[in-house]
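Hi everyone,

Forwarding the result from last night's run.
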Amino acid sequence: MSSLQAGRVGDGQAGGRGGGRDGRAFERCVRKKKKKKKKKKKKKKKKKKKKKKKKKNKR
């Protein structure tokens, strides 16, 4: 056997006391997840459309 013992978390082998879980996948779910801070979205100001004045036909 290699010096790595199966069943330790993170050894990449299933078996031993770790159960049938591969260490890598197991470690991923054990580590506490860091909460991501939500960035506040800036509200975009709506530009007011300028109304074009209709030119009346001057006679």
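Residues 19 and 41 are 45 Å apart (CA to CA).

Cheers,
N.
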